């Protein structure tokens, strides 16, 4: 061995990283980090391109010769985030969710003919509850062994549209069986009276049914995905969106989804929304259609020309433009704003929490649906946050998210709010802003709680004219249906898949087009006892709710129909294609040879 190949000097050891020892050291390091964040320009602004966030899009502009703008950096879950960017992204998340959060309370209040003060409180409590429970979802608290509470992602919660569809069917059953008051005019027009107790019954039933989703959170995510594959979840989500477009979106676009929709010739609902409105008109009047169309077109124009910030809040832009024109034209009643309190909080108004027995089975089905939605939404949030979507860590996020979803259903009933479950509306904000940081999510929760505490804001939301709300929610509910179609696209669509989907949609779409087809199913049963009648009502509610009956059919058929051999089915068309191509390729040669 040559002496030149011998290393006589050894490298000096690398010093160990300085980790603060003990609790005091960690606190000092944390304090130092906060001081740098709040006292330096980098801590406040960072190197984010704020001009990019606010620059409008010009699709027709000539882009030749221009340099392509550099995309902003991606901020991961727990990376350092500038304060201004955290505020901006948090506000975008809150505004992107806002329309979806205020719509269910408004629809519930209209369905039960509740007064403006109660309706405004329902909106406020929904916003506050969403902010509190979203913080829990983002936390990912370790419980025991491999079990967690929360996803650890920017997983925000809101009133599920699945609850909205089912609650409307439950309210209809309560008015039909006399639980809620109603009067019938001489011309046959039925007018529903105020029924706050019905809302309390839905809350109580939801509270006890939430334990089903809590139990499901301890089932392996792989098992849940096997029982509820994309074929089932996609069908459910598709039918939720489609049914809401028909039961709420378009009717409100025409002037209202209450009794004025039947265009009675006299009475309180002869005009929409009622005869006491500032400018009441018959349902379907061109003025109403125009207001809704203006809001709808505003969403489209924002998508075409808006900056990334405005695109994230295009629904709010549609509401703002529609309300501006409606206010100038005299369609807005400001009484809800004047009667709303300046400051409010949870439990300022309460409902009698009771259990409505016929609603138990439908609400259990709703919580199964919420668990299915949660799994899909968590997966989407993980993908857009650049977090692995497989492995034990991801399974623990699903488990923690479903558990938090179930506990959230229990707590939301105590908050006087219908079940709050994971929302997916904010995933677009993460994708566009490239910010998946949980600090932005916490600021989002802060804004939601602030919007709820400021009672006048709820009064403003309540004053939105029905046509404006209808034009916006029609787009919102259609987006839900598109999400369901996207989930269905994950299927291979074998013959078995097509059969399952066709069978499920036979009931779902049929129920959607002919809503009363199952309401008289048990009319021939003479003098049923109270328990049997409750069972009949439960079955009727399930059969009368398109997404429930479609989901049940899809889930049952998916379990009992055997899987097909996909490989064999895939090989057949490939052989045919190859033979056809070979035939067309060889024919000219043969002809030339001849």
Automatic annotation (TrEMBL):
GO terms for cellular component: fungal-type vacuole; plasma membrane. Residues 1-11 have a biased composition (Basic and acidic residues). Keywords: Membrane, Transmembrane, Transmembrane helix, Transport. It comes from the Eukaryota. Signal peptide: none annotated. It is found in: Membrane. GO terms for molecular function: xanthine transmembrane transporter activity. InterPro entries: NCS2, Xan_ur_permease. The keyword Membrane applies. It is a multi-pass membrane protein. Belongs to the nucleobase:cation symporter-2 (NCS2) (TC 2.A.40) family. PANTHER family: PURINE PERMEASE C1399.01C-RELATED. This is Xanthine/uracil permease.
